[in-house]
Amino acid sequence: MVEINWHVVNNGLDFLASAVELLKAGGERDMKYAALHLSASIETLLKVRLAREHWTLVMADPGMAKRADYEAGNFKSVSIDQALDRLTSIASVTISKKDIDRIRHLNRTRNQIAHFALIGEAPLQTRATVVRAMESLIRFIEKELAPGAPDDEREIIDATYSSVMEQVRMIDVMVREIMNSLKPTIAEATVPVVKCPECLQDAYCFGDGKPGRCLFCSYEQSGYVAAADYAGNVLGESEYRTVKDGGEWIVSRCHICFDSALVDGIQTTAEVDATQGCFGCGYFGDLEALERCARCGEWTSANPDSMAVCSDCFDYYASAD
């Protein structure tokens, strides 16, 4: 195992500590820098773990790797995406798909900030992105970075981890306080409330004829995007894996607004049975309210007296006559 420069590990952990402090501060500017610093921490610590496997894996092109360049820091290193791919495929490091998605989401936010393109995202939404990626990084430190670390690295890892976790617990208290303040509004909501596709708090209110919005982090996306985010982030489903295995994707076209935003299997905060809901128009119904169209297979209103046929297919049959 190649010895890692202690200062590299220290820098990665210092960026993590800074991100936590900025999260606690809570301002809009603080959230942007928290995203930048956490992204830097993740990139650095992923590379540390890669270098333990073999120093050439840190380089963008391992085939051109020279040890002298590596020791001098004179080389182009891997991106976060490349590091994740190499850790899981070459170093046999176990990182869950959820954690990989969270880290990549943070990296996209970081790129938007760096290129002045983070427009219209509320501070709480950025905060949710940072918190989720931070949870993933903490798991990575626990399972993959701390075990097997040399004594000098382990000492700084343990000290930083203890400090970070103490502050993370304080942030958790702040989140609970915000959620408690939202309880009356959520209780009085006349629309279904579900877990937010972004921050995962039980605060996303379905819209009434339009896409909904999260009361906690202000997440507000088009029906199609929100439905896909809910399926992946909340229900843990993957369209690629589902289709590959011959299954039926849980997101389909809504029979009312015709947006591809109808999710089958939503759970509300009211603890009702899993049901169908459209993130595009706010339709919500139980599992018996809809049926698959006998012709095309799209969802349509259930008809106990005859075969279910969607409006498109009905018009097709009518024009054929």
Summarize the structure.
With about 325 residues, the chain is of the alpha+beta class. The chain is about 50% helix and about 10% strand.
N- to C-terminal separation? 76 Å
Strand order of the largest sheet: 4-5-6-7
Question: What's the overall geometry?
Answer: globular
Unreliable runs: none
Total of DSSP H or I helical runs spanning 4+ residues: 10
Main sheet characteristics: 4 strands, antiparallel
Q: Decide which structural class fits the backbone.
A: alpha+beta
Number of structural units classed as domains = 2
Structural overview:
There is one protein chain. The chain starts with 5 loop residues before the first helix and ends with a helix. It is of the alpha+beta class. It is globular, with a radius of gyration of 24 Å. Helix content is 52%, strand content 8%. The protein folds into two domains: 173 residues, no CATH class; 95 residues, no CATH class. The mean pLDDT is 82. A four-stranded antiparallel sheet has the order 4-5-6-7, covered by helices on one side. The protein has a three-stranded antiparallel sheet with strand order 1-2-3, with no helix packed on it. A two-stranded antiparallel ribbon has the order 8-9. It has ten helices and nine strands.
